[in-house]
Amino acid sequence: MTTESQNVDTHEIAKFEALASRWWDQESEFKPLHEINPLRINYINDAVSLQDKKVIDIGCGGGILSEAMAALGAKVKGIDMGEAPLGVARLHLLESNLEVDYERITAEEIAAREAGQYDVVTCLEMLEHVPDPASVITACAKLVKPGGHVFFSTINRNPKAYLFAVIGAEYVLNMLPKGTHDYAKFIQPSELNNYARRAGLEVENLMGMTYNPLSKIYKLNEKDVSVNYLMNTHKPA
């Protein structure tokens, strides 16, 4: 179900609310997120040094990426519409001794309030869980300063992605809870590119993220964006 006034799928929120207590358990359903996080953070930090940058993490969940960016010296705000994951994220700060400002608010709402205030915007593994990804991308473009960067990641939409991200990850390898992903919401790189350009962003780089089920190792591979991929964009100065 989608709320009329917000770009939110309440069913998607409920799925992650139910799992919130296990967000920081590295052997839980969130194990893949913990395993890919070093790849994500290195991709971002290599493109834009996060030290002293003002960053907002859209769809931050329990704060795995937000904390990693804070650990590299960024001033981080994390937003999400799930209160339970945000509660877990705030609690984990007591263990990590890091500083992250968490708030329950949509990307569109905070873009109206804090337009042009961030050096870096991240929106990872979130676009495939909202009814209108283009609206979120537009909000990200509003939030970033001219010359700043916006990073996205999502899942490609093709038979291979369905086989790996849905059948393989959810039903064969049991890496994710069944029903985590809706194939119809997957986004092809060309679509994400178009959304970004319409929002006034210029695409700098597209990077695939691959998984080997035998070695159980994730890698970045710019030549393979067939399943998971990241995109680095910037707003012209």
TrEMBL record:
GO molecular function terms attached to this record: 2-polyprenyl-6-hydroxyphenol methylase activity; 3-demethylubiquinol 3-O-methyltransferase activity
Keywords: Methyltransferase, S-adenosyl-L-methionine, Transferase, Ubiquinone biosynthesis
GO BP terms, alphabetized: methylation
EC number: 2.1.1.222, 2.1.1.64
Catalytic activity: a 3-(all-trans-polyprenyl)benzene-1,2-diol + S-adenosyl-L-methionine = a 2-methoxy-6-(all-trans-polyprenyl)phenol + S-adenosyl-L-homocysteine + H(+); a 3-demethylubiquinol + S-adenosyl-L-methionine = a ubiquinol + S-adenosyl-L-homocysteine + H(+)
Sites where the protein binds S-adenosyl-L-methionine: 40, 59, 80, 124
InterPro entries, per database record: SAM-dependent_MTases_sf, UbiG_MeTrfase
Keyword Methyltransferase: yes
CDD domains tied to this protein: AdoMet_MTases
Pfam families named in the record: Methyltransf_23 (PF13489)
Pathway: Cofactor biosynthesis; ubiquinone biosynthesis
Tree of life domain: Bacteria
Coiled-coil residues: none
Function: O-methyltransferase that catalyzes the 2 O-methylation steps in the ubiquinone biosynthetic pathway.
HAMAP family reported in the protein's UniProt record: UbiG
NCBIfam families in the record: UbiG (TIGR01983)
Family per similarity comment: Belongs to the methyltransferase superfamily. UbiG/COQ3 family.
Protein's UniProt name: Ubiquinone biosynthesis O-methyltransferase
Gene: ubiG
